[in-house]
Specification:
Layout (H helix, E strand, L loop, with lengths): L2 H8 L7 H16 L12 E8 L2 E8 L2 E9 L2 H4 L3 H15 L1 H4 L3 E6 L15 H9 L4 E6 L6 H7 L19 H11 L1 H6 L1
Parallel strand pairs: 1-4, 4-5
Antiparallel strand pairs: 1-2, 2-3
Helix pairs in contact: 1-2, 4-6
């Protein structure tokens, strides 16, 4: 969803395109109708749902089925050429690294839709690249659970928006910064400041 925005912000010179505008509008819509994220509770086990899909990766950190955090990002050109196994493993290690402050010292569940990764710790790791990914997971206490693609909510939520029932009401909370408004009001009411302008 955000790939066109990443593209226009990483290419010189900056050029706002119609596809970037469409992606921006879609992203605003997705963020304004998404469920409110929960605050983490260290007494409840964490769950990571991860998936490598098409051109990118996505993961959701949740507790009791309620999302706490999520991310999605495109794959590098090197990873686009890698096997599905490597890409799925990359998503897991990226998600664990991103949320390490919540996961270190706690047992957590990783939910994947790639069956061969379920036995990650009992497989013979053949390549240096796979050794590198596995080494990144060594400090953590986790279980890996397989869930079919149709039931992997992270993949569905990050690759396309689910159809929402018309009766569902969602809340979006946005912080309101009043400092600049108050500063502007105080400066406008200050005679010496207005005189210097």
């Amino acid at each position: 969803m955000v790939a066109p925005l990443v593209k226009v912000t990483t290419i010189e010179p900056f050029q706002w395109t119609s596809s970037a505008q469409e992606a921006f509008d879609n992203l605003k819509l997705a963020l304004s109708i998404a469920p409110v994220l929960a605050l983490p509770n260290s007494d409840i086990p964490f769950t990571i749902e991860s998936d490598a899909f098409g051109m990118g990766m996505g993961a959701v950190l949740a507790q009791n089925g309620h999302p706490i955090s999520f991310f999605s990002k495109p794959f590098s050109p090197k990873l686009l050429c890698s096997s599905t196994y490597v890409r799925e493993l990359c998503v897991i290690t990226t998600a664990v690294k991103k949320w390490r402050q919540y996961l270190l010292g706690h047992r957590f569940m990783i939910i994947i839709d790639h069956r061969s990764l379920k036995e990650l710790l009992t497989q013979v790791i053949q390549t240096p690249e796979l050794h590198m990914y596995l080494a990144r997971l060594m400090l953590y206490d986790y279980d890996i659970q397989y869930r079919s693609r149709a039931n992997n909510q992270a993949a569905n939520a990050l690759s396309r928006l689910p159809e929402m029932p018309a009766t569902l009401h969602l809340i979006l909370s946005v912080p309101s910064l009043t400092f600049l408004g108050e500063l502007r009001h105080q400066l406008n009411s200050n005679a010496s400041y207005c005189h210097q302008r």
